[in-house]
Amino acid sequence: MEATFIAALAGLTSIGAYYVGARALGLPSARLGAAVGKMLESVGMVLIFLAVNLTTSVLVVLVVRGLADTFVSAYAVDDAVWLGLSLIQGLAFQSWRGSAAEPASGR
């Protein structure tokens, strides 16, 4: 029931955003597909950064465990901060990548 509520609420806010964008802001409906494609690229970049960050952190913990005489906990890997940091990294990298594809203005 909770998943249905969340999906329905997200659907309603998406429909609301579509109407605000199309009517109030005058955004072209034909460009919505391209925008969704860009969004999926950004989500993919965030997931790539999340996988690399988590893999690297686990490897560092294992290496330190092997080299140090003390036990190093892997609980630092299990933190929601990784998702936030990966979000920032992925969006910044995707923005950088997008700006490199645009023609330079006045340079």
Describe this structure in words.
The chain has helices spanning 2-24, 32-67, 81-101. With 107 residues, it is mainly α. It has a domain at 30-101. α2 crosses α3 (81-101). The longest helix has 36 residues, at 32-67. The termini are far apart. The mean pLDDT is 91.
Q: Which tags fit this structure?
A:
single chain, mainly alpha, 3 helices, 75% helix
Record the SSE blueprint.
Layout: H1 2-24, H2 32-67, H3 81-101
Helix pairs in contact: 2-3
The major β-sheet equals: none
Tally of strands = 0
Average pLDDT: 91
Rg computed from alpha carbons, rounded to a whole number of angstroms: 20 Å
Give a concise summary.
The protein has 107 residues and is mainly α.
